[in-house]
Fold these 2 entries.
Entry 1:
Amino acid sequence: MTTSAPRIAIVGTGVIGAMAAWRLAVRGARVLAFDSYAPGHDRGASAGESRIFRTVYKEGGSYVPLLRRAGELWRELEAVSAREILTRCGGLTIGAPEHPDLVAVRRCAEEYGLAHEILDDSAAAARFPQHRLDPGEIVFLDPAAGVLRPEPAVQGALAAAASAGAEILSYHRIDELTETGGGWRLRANGETFTADHVVLSPGPWAPAVRALAGFPIEVRRITPCWFAARDVAAHRPNRLPIAIRRHPDAGFSCFPVLDGVAVKIVPHHLGFPALADPAELPRSVDAEFVRAASAAVARLLPGLVPAPVRIGTYAEGFTPDDHAIVGPLPGTANATVLTGFSGHGFKLAPVFGEIAADLVLHGKTRHDIGALDPNRFTREG
Ligand SMILES: Cc1cc2nc3c(=O)[nH]c(=O)nc-3n(C[C@H](O)[C@H](O)[C@H](O)COP(=O)(O)OP(=O)(O)OC[C@H]3O[C@@H](n4cnc5c(N)ncnc54)[C@H](O)[C@@H]3O)c2cc1C
């Protein structure tokens, strides 16, 4: 690194800012990465034991090349951090063949020639007895999908960034951000910092960042629940892939046992309620939510004890079209925004880190991010 290398300030080191710090630092930038809390904290969007990684994407085929590159970078991060982060246990989408998610994954797999299997209800009952299917339902298997571990991922990326020279400033909330001639001035804990370029990756705190006030980001609560497995061995990643379950009575994502005790489900059918501010994230839920989540488990996951052993609450920022906002920040020079990941940003985080580094250092990227253009939400868009 030379002192003439650009000085880049990153605001927010959840998974997105952590990956940007890593990819920028290894490419020679002088990185200063700020966070109000410490790496791996549980108040934002990047914690809670597990995340889904999929390669066949119901959200749109344009993500397929990004997912491929993300998969390579997850492996690279595992190698440099000497931690297991992504376990390729496979991934299931389960439901009626005409459900839009099943239709979308089949279409994506066919269009991009991606490996997959389709099981009818009796084949699924033999292979994945952990899930109860109704007659006529099917299972779509994405064999290259897997489960990610969020806390080691964030900490590993920041450790790799620090080894490449980045300064990681935990408990530094940026409370003032001012564009100066050709750069930026930032204030945290009463101290002033300067940078040539800023990367804004504040996750669900985006509405509180004045420079991002024009973006329609809604903060919502997501509430995973853990249910003890009766037969733990049958619910570990070598036997239970990650899953997205679609059923008339319930919809949820489902994660294998990683803690030696419990399967995690995220009940989608119970909603992701809006929050005024991540600071107001309630740490508990009402009894009705617990009863409804337990009923879904009793109905569709017969190998689990249908009463949660633990519940977590997390905040995430959603955009109106459920696609992230990634690109140069309109109306400013030398600022890049990555926010609004709408409940599906984790698996792609390393490639978004690479994209951030491309945009900061070269003003462009080879990756196709047209659908994520910040201008679609601004007057110019
Ligand atoms: C419960 C849950 C389950 C999910 N499941 C999946 C899944 O299975 N697969 C998947 O791909 N995605 C999933 N997602 C989505 C994914 O986890 C998020 O899209 C991703 O973690 C967003 O990361 P982020 O870095 O943008 O936000 P965050 O992790 O919230 O990070 C933002 C950081 O910015 C910091 N910050 C904010 N303002 C300031 C400031 N002024 N100064 C300094 N620091 C600041 C915050 O402290 C925070 O650390 C899930 C999300 C949740 C909540």
Entry 2:
Amino acid sequence: MAGINLRGVVKAYGKTQVIHGVDCTIADGEFLVIVGPSGCGKSTLLRMIAGLEIITDGEISIGDRVVNDLEPAERDIAMVFQNYALYPHMTVYNNMAYGLKIRGLAKADIDTRVRKAAEILALDDDLLRRTPRQLSGGQRQRVAMGRAIVRQPSAFLFDEPLSNLDAKLRVQMRLEIKKLQQNLGITSVYVTHDQVEAMTLGHRLMVLNGGVVEQIGAPIELYEHPATLFVAGFIGSPAMNLLPARIGDGGDRVELSGGDSLALPPGRFAAHAGQTVTAGLRPEHFEIVTDDQSVARLAVDVVEQLGADTLVHGHFGNDRGSLTVRLNGTQNLQARQVLPMSVRPELIHLFDADSGRRLES
Ligand SMILES: Nc1ncnc2c1ncn2[C@@H]1O[C@H](COP(=O)(O)OP(=O)(O)O)[C@@H](O)[C@H]1O
Ligand SMILES: [Mg+2]
């Protein structure tokens, strides 16, 4: 096993730079998820760790070896892709055994490793004899994982391994991967565009945007303290409401563009009085209040009842920008109703309107 170190990693295709200097230390046994929208550079970064792409600048080490100039096969990593790339004419057993045969392992060793991986992944003898065509999507995904496990690598690299599966199976396989990583304790880097997958799987997340790291941290850290507007809007579902606002002259209220205002923690933002900001209000942090000291009036446009909770889409005052509020349970609300809403001061996020960076408080 081994940790992975990225130092100033840059990638350019011709004159176009797509990764702009990534620094990250992934601890031995850690599960790091790289998450970001399509095209932000996730696969490129992962492929550079794997050795499938040349690094334009910077340094990557695995364990105590700098691997910049090592071939993929010399890096002691195993990669699992979105399209499982199984050999169609080979049995499941041979799909898992093949890489080991090529490396010249003894037949008995190969058998031990394949059987052990099969056991971990609940692939029984019947399945081991089948060819990939005779498997469900979830089983194929498990074989692809098995092929990685038998190599006993010092790190796993995953590139959107679940995106070909239907929603239900994706949730199930997500749990299996998490359990597997917990049990094997192998350093893993996992790429996905799905923030829910990222939140549930990772010990830490790297949020990547346009080839730049926006933030690295534990899932809850990113949820509670997003460092930038991008992270704020990306992490959490439904997404955080981001509203144009201004910090009041006393620094103790945030004035929303619709005309209402909410109380801020006393004294915390005094230095930012009068500043133009973007206020971040999570849908799940709104509550219906009677207190008229800190209230914004939500004009209801559309109500969605989901059973466990109710999503209310509406707008504040004369502001036409739409926002979403999530209330627990089933709420009988009507369009055009006006709800007095508030958010606890310590749950209000404030970002500089120009830089998009979280305001220090
Ligand atoms: N071989 C290539 N040549 C030129 N540009 C590429 C190549 N591979 C990827 N890119 C570009 O690099 C950027 C990042 O791509 P990629 O890492 O695949 O994104 P992601 O995996 O996050 O969707 C994209 O703008 C993509 O068009
Ligand atoms: Mg990709």
